[in-house]
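Re: beginner question about structure tokens

> Can someone show what the tokenized structure looks like for a real chain? I only ever see the sequence side.

Sure, here's an example I had lying around. Input first:
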Amino acid sequence: MFVRNHMTHDPIAAAPDASAARVLELMIHQRISHVPVVDESGRLLGLVTGHQVRRIELDGSLGNCPVRKIMLIEPVTTTADTTVGAAMRIMSERRVSSLLVVDSAGRLEGIITRQDLLNVVCRWLAFDQQGSTIELSLVDEKADLVAAFEVLKSHDADLLSAVASCVRDDGDEPALYLRIAQRNPRPIESALSRAGLIPLEPELEAERSDEADRVHQPG
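And the corresponding structure tokens:
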């Protein structure tokens, strides 16, 4: 899976002499927060973010200030052939919310944002589909993985995604995250426990959804 499959092709861009006020207007109208700056040939010169423009606006000096005076001169770039995983790593390491996609001549081809990558992860993990998540502690990784999938098979569970995490923030054992189509994971969780596995607290999305509905109902 590559950046080219998930980036915005031919994104809205600005000329270096465009006014910051005009760029802010574009951002508001198009609901974007990143505007690349390119020359007449499409070669990338810089990047203007909503944060930069609004900071100048608050200073009261937005006016006709050209974006070349406020743009980020060396924005983080990548290529269309970069994998999505590598793009995530670059964005995390460089602490940026977007990557500008350029060709070998430095011409702008697209942009991929943190939101784009978040959407990819949601699809990978099937969080864009109704279901529930079961978290298992992996004491004996290989044996527990085999046992977990045997339980799912024997109970005709509709598996949407499965992720084994080797590192836990709390320093505990590795964990297996199972995303299943069933909105109530309790029966599967009980079967996993009977198989000697250790389910952690399940995510009851149906209950959470019902509770949210109650909260948003008028008095």
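Each token stands for a local structural state, so reading them left to right follows the chain. The two ends are 48 Å apart (CA to CA).
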